[in-house]
Specification:
Elements lengths: L1 E3 L5 E3 L12 H5 L5 E2 L2 E2 L2 H4 L4 H12 L4 H11 L8 H13 L3 E5 L5 E5 L1 H9 L1 H14 L7 H20 L4 H20 L1
Antiparallel strand pairs: 1-2, 3-4, 5-6
Helix pairs in contact: 3-5, 3-7, 4-5
Amino acid sequence: MRFFGRHGGMGRRFMRDEQSPDGRGRRHREGLGHRNHGRRSHLGRFLEHGDLRLVVLKLIADTPRHGYDIIKAIEDLAGGAYTPSPGVVYPTLTLLEELGHITVSTGDGPRKLHTITEDGTRFLEANAPSVSAIFARFAEAGPSAGPAPQILRSMENLKLALRLRLARDRVDESQIRAIAAAIDAAATAVEQT
């Protein structure tokens, strides 16, 4: 099957199970991976189609959780290389509830607590090999999956704060020394960490 590409050239669209010539498959070639903060995430290395449901269910089986807790737990599992969006996690929670794998209870404020059901436990046990493989991929990638997004964000925050402060008004000699001292103290703290 042929189609006209984004740049007007002819290209070939590959069927669901067919590999592209580069061997990377349909998901990579068509850019079906998720995005994280404007950069391509490492999700493809961790999760395949349907894996998120098992990850979420396993996390809830370990301890009842709120949606935000699940997002943070997955970010921790991925070593900061991937943070799932609420637009991915909350529909997964709804699906798990509709399947009868979890129950939802309201508690403190608008937050909903998700708890695994007996059906959910049986489903998780039936998929134990897949669950183990998914969590092994997370463990393999770990924190070395790339620079932690939290650190990159903090670096950008510092650069922005400096630019805004220096653009706001003229900086005198004492302010320059104070800013430099604050940056030096931060650098020393990072070195000692």
